[in-house]
Amino acid sequence: IFTTWGEIMLRIVKSFLTIAVVAAIAVGATGAYFDSNVPVNGNDISTGTLTLALDPATPGNGAPVIIANMQPGDGEANELHHRWNLVNDGTLNLKYRIRAINTTAAGNDDLYNELRFKLGEYSSGSSKNLGTSLTLADLEAGILIDGDVIPTALDTRVRTVFVRPYLPSSVGNTVQGQTVSFDIIFEATQTNNPAW
Predict the structure, then answer these.
(1) Are 180 and 136 in contact (CB under 8 A)?
(2) Residue 179 CB: number of other CB atoms within 10 A?
């Protein structure tokens, strides 16, 4: 039961609105439209490669540093010279560093602390000096050699890293008969890696 003429009119208007909305949906759902499409076929996304390698064209490349019977003053004149030739065999630019892993037996701490290294790199032109009095601890921390090496396919220059170990002439008897042992690792990462 309706109490006023206004309520009756309101219900009639709501009914017409409901019928209009349903009719609009029905027409939209059954209507026909033109359409067109353009295919783009054969899409591929691939990743690059990051490969630092010893240059296979260099005889003896990758040989370890072995020095026997060292005495104070040896190497100060750069006569003890060891080098490795490296290439970027990947497809991405890379940055690389040298790092040492200490495998020295206990009781050889004096030589470990006194031994020094000169480190450098050259690929063409003048050499890059990376340190003239580095310790094994410095090498263990890692030393950046080059921050942007182009792939060999685009730049055929070989990167030559050289290390010159020396025992300062000021070193005394505490290092006699001692031996330090370490592995050298060349590590590479993509150039935009902020970690190192």
Answers:
(1) yes
(2) 13
pLDDT tens-digit profile, the chain (196 residues): 556 877 888 888 888 889 988 887 876 666 678 999 999 999 999 999 999 999 999 888 989 999 999 999 999 988 888 999 999 999 999 999 999 999 999 999 999 999 999 999 988 677 899 999 999 999 999 999 999 999 988 988 889 999 999 999 999 999 999 999 999 999 999 999 998 8
Phi, psi of 124 (to 5 degrees): -170, 150
SS (H, E, C) 147-179: EEECCCCCCCCCEEEEEEEECCCCCCHHHCCCC
| Contacts (Cβ under 8 Å, ≥6 apart) of 110 | 174, 175, 178
The dihedral over CA atoms of 6, 11, 17, 19, expressed in degrees to the nearest 10, equals -150
Please report, for residues 18, 28, 31, 189, the alpha-carbon distance to residue 22 in angstroms, rounded to integers and kept in the order given. 6, 10, 14, 63
Q: Give the start-end residues of each E strand in 36-81.
A: 52-54
Question: Against a cut of 0.85, is the pTM above it?
Answer: no
* Tokens (6 digits) for 90: 């990947």
Shortest CA distance to 73 belongs to which of 116, 120, 107? 116
Strands (E), 68-168: 82-88, 94-102, 116-122, 128-134, 143-149, 159-166
How far apart are alpha carbons 61 and 84 in whole angstroms? Answer: 6
For residues 90 and 51, the answer to whether their CB atoms sit within 8 Å is yes
